Amino acid sequence: MSEYIDVDALLRVVVAAVIVGAGLPAMFALGVRALVPSGAGRADAAGAALGESAGGSSGASAEVRVGHVGAGRRVAAVASFAVCVAAIVAGIAFIVSGGH
Amino acid sequence: MEYVTEPILLVVVVVTALAFDFTNGFHDTGNAMATSIATRALKPKAAVLLSASLNLVGAFLSLAVAATIAKGIVDAGVVTLPVVLAGLVGGIVWNLLTWLFGIPSSSSHALIGGVVGAVLAAVGTDGVIWSGVISKVMLPALIAPVLAIGVGALGTWMVARITKDIPEDTNSRMFRWGQIGSASLVSLAHGTNDAQKSMGIILLALIAGGAVDESSGVPFWVVASCAIAMGLGTYLGGWRVIRTLGKGLVEIDSRQGMAAETSSAAVILLSSHFGYSLSTTHVATGSILGSGVGMPGAKVRWGVAGRMFTAWLVTLPAAGIVGAACLWLDEAIGGDAGSYVVFGLLVAVSTAIWLVSRRKPVDHTNVNDEWEDASTQVAEVVATHDPAALATVGAGPAPSGTAATTHRTDDQDGRA
């Protein structure tokens, strides 16, 4: 088989694809997770603080709006999204540079 | 400029290459945009417009791989204008047939199959580099879907776990941006990769026809016309294929769509980076399947997937047979006239396929209709060789067809 397959190149593709291809969606999901308050069942500190601030600004609105989250979570979310944007920019740069 | 030996034939070949480029565009729109259309992250028309623009831009970005697509697969010395023409016809016919049945299949494999078939017909087995066929075409076709299913499934599973307690509408709202971003990258990469293949074919024809030097680069008009043909093809939208990818294989939500397109973009770009090019279609389809495998509780229609895998296996020989038949016909008639007849035949067959597709049109208005499991019906009418029933079932998507069911019953009764 090795006469037809460059096993080394294939392994690199597999490892890199798993890290980037599955890692980036997870990173994006973490960003979303950080930006959205935890569900009603969970009462951790961040969630409680979020609920408070949301209640203060939008009255009796049942839905906690995105954006009314603690600074720490916002930073985490921005960092996660920044990684995703950076990956897209890297992808475009790769295409422009002609690949290979 | 050198003396052009057969100017009219050369024009015919270039036009056919642009036609192939066009079918490549509309056949592959779904690779990037099917998930965004299915989850309504983008309106169908907006999605194809975005994808078309990015394909157009992508085609201008790089000329690095505008070498011949058949390099290392067939002996470059035996490639003549009739061989290129026959190969292109094989690729186009297979692209149109798979589109008619709504099957995503690799445009480059179709083209390679057509060229290999034409070379076989022209000079026999010596003209084909079989180790190249195995290592550059067949093995990647096995590896691509497996890898993409794995990556897509893992990504989807992690996303699903991380976001499981977030309300659905919030997820949809946020993930649509990730979905649009990743799908755009797939479109851009497609424009760059696939348009270059057509440019390579046209350059090959120009050299074979004596219109440009062998050392010549790709003329700008070739780049521009390939970019426009692909952009137009993409904008037309292969709605039948989009429907299969977005609705047929897996019922998809924004999170799955985002994970699938990211997986596609990553696998396509990384494999090309490490010198192991995989087919965009195989990767994109694998990723979408993976997003169904990795999503807890999601339904994957393996029947539809199986039909598609079968088509992938058949792509190379089927396009090859068409390519070989065209070359034989060309040589039997002889001279330039043979090539004109082949071209005329291509126009006739394409028109016929288009007319059949109009019987049960799939377009931006019904692309997202509920999927009825028509795959078994199609399989059955194919098995019983009933062209009338086949036309009724059409692409399988059959957005509102109950006629298909009737036919199936008839067939079963008739055979019982």
TrEMBL record, chain A:
Annotated transmembrane regions: 12-32, 75-96
Domain of life where this protein originates: Bacteria
Protein's UniProt keywords contain Transmembrane helix: yes
Alphabetic keyword roster: Membrane, Transmembrane, Transmembrane helix
Protein name: Uncharacterized protein
Protein's organism: Sediminihabitans luteus
TrEMBL record, chain B:
Topological type in the membrane: Multi-pass membrane protein
MF terms (GO), sorted A to Z: phosphate transmembrane transporter activity
GO BP terms, alphabetized: phosphate ion transmembrane transport
Biased composition range(s): Basic and acidic residues: 407-416
Region (Disordered): 392-416
The organism's place on the tree of life at top rank: Bacteria
InterPro entries recorded: Phos_transporter (IPR001204)
Transmembrane stretches, start-end: 6-26, 47-70, 76-97, 109-131, 137-160, 218-237, 309-331, 337-356
Biased composition annotated in UniProt, kind: Low complexity: 392-406
Main location: membrane
A GO CC term assigned to this protein in UniProt: membrane
Subcellular location: Membrane
Keywords, comma-separated and alphabetical: Membrane, Phosphate transport, Transmembrane, Transmembrane helix, Transport
Pfam family, one: PHO4
Family per record: Belongs to the inorganic phosphate transporter (PiT) (TC 2.A.20) family.
Protein name: Phosphate transporter
